[in-house]
Amino acid sequence: MSPQSKPVILIIDDEPDRLAALERDVRALTSTLEVRTWAPEKSDGDPGATFAVKASGDVGFVVTDHDLTKNGPPGLLGTSIATWCLDRYLPMCYFTRRVEVRLPRERSIFEFRISFDADERERAREIVRLAHGFQDVRERLASGPAEGSMSDQLAGIFGRPILSNDLAPYFSGIGLAHSQILQDLASTDFAGEANTSARASIQAFVLGHILANAVLEFPGPILNTAQLNAYCGTDSKEYHRVSILFEKAAYVGPFSQFDGYFYRDRVDAVLDAMSGEIEGDDPDTYGRLVVEGQVGTLPPHECERIDCHGTRGGFWCPFTGRTVCGRQDCSVASTSWIPRGAVVCRVERDYFDEHAPLLGS
Ligand SMILES: [Zn+2]
């Protein structure tokens, strides 16, 4: 990408009114990204050739309707767009009508999905968050040496090499399902300008997806505001009273644009500094005891399970979005549903018992 021009979001939809509305909403949220649109029509020639033109130049993120068959040329599907994006290591996002069950095995780590049912402004915010996030990853990679393992590089993007060990497990699942990506990465080297830029775009593609789709969706080293509350066993309605204690732990980096995020190791350091006489050996109760020591007694959170009664926590269920504690009747430890590395995630027991017969554990 040339430094003079703005990176571009390409939005594809065969329904022109919806395309125009989304373009307007996305433009309203960004001044650093340009927006390009494509409304495929039946009379379009070879759609692959048209896409190649539309996706040329500074396009850094692609959004497409999953179903382009109403007005688009015969045979053009959202999945075709996804294939062409992957060929170019362009991150992309689908619009889809289906309500997604958020299980990692059911979707690719290398794509995003936004439901049509989401609020229009929410949709635009998510698109802008993702597009800005990938741009941020590219710029941070370009400004520093991208050496070492993938987890070294991601930790380097944060300027926190110490996090490499915590991030490494998230990368362990890529190899088998996506060997072509790793082969492409291995076959590019630093010899020439073209190779360097090809390598950089693969690196940004892999690092951005692992960060946005795994590390931030299934928390371990980084927590968002709701996950911080779960970690501390406090109710998310109390987030303003809780998160203010952890300002020193803030994560400000790719994809953090619209929410508060926190480094868990720094959250632990803040907790320990405030803990006084409180022992830190029970993760289910420690955070809440320390936080209440600072802000006073807090109301129970929404979990009313017997013996937990809204005061225990320490973990977050990525499928129900609720606080859970480590008791066996409350949650289930890591299954194949949760990426390795996501040490703050446990599956809520009721959800697990309901879905395990269908999905396996
Ligand atoms: Zn519990």
Short description:
With 361 residues, the protein is of the alpha/beta class. The chain is built from 14 helices and 11 strands. The chain folds into 3 domains: 130 residues, Rossmann fold (3-Layer(aba) Sandwich), CATH 3.40.50.2300; 72 residues, no CATH class; 138 residues, no CATH class.
- Overall number of strands: 11
Overall number of structural domains? 3
Mean pLDDT over the full residue set: 87
**Small molecules held by this entry:** zinc ion
Number of helices: 14
Topology as a string of helices (H) and strands (E): EHEHEHEEHHHHHHEHHEHHEEEEH
**Unreliable spans:** none
Give the termini distance in whole angstroms: 44 Å
Q: What's the overall geometry?
A: globular
Strand order of the largest sheet: 2-1-3-4-5
Give the % helix: 40-55%
Beta-strand fraction estimate: 5-15%
- Biggest pleated-sheet summary: 5 strands, parallel
Structural category is alpha/beta
Work out the radius of gyration: 22 Å
Layout of helices and strands:
Layout: E1 8-12, H1 16-29, E2 34-38, H2 47-54, E3 59-65, H3 78-87, E4 92-96, E5 112-115, H4 120-142, H5 150-157, H6 164-171, H7 174-177, H8 179-187, H9 193-215, E6 222-224, H10 225-231, H11 239-243, E7 261-263, H12 264-274, H13 286-295, E8 315-316, E9 323-324, E10 331-332, E11 347-348, H14 349-359
Parallel strand pairs: 1-2, 1-3, 3-4, 4-5
Antiparallel strand pairs: 6-7, 8-9, 10-11
Helix pairs in contact: 1-4, 4-9, 5-6, 5-9
The structure holds zinc ion.
Q: How would you characterize this protein structure?
A:
The protein is α/β, with parallel strands linked by helices and 361 residues long. The protein folds into 3 domains: 130 residues, 3-Layer(aba) Sandwich (Rossmann fold), CATH 3.40.50; 72 residues, no CATH class; 138 residues, no CATH class. Helices cover 42% and strands 11% of the residues. It has a 5-stranded parallel sheet with strand order 2-1-3-4-5, sandwiched between helices. A two-stranded antiparallel sheet has the order 6-7. Strand 8 and strand 9 form a beta hairpin. The termini are far apart. The relative contact order is 0.09. Bound molecules: zinc ion. Zinc ion (ZN) binds next to loops.
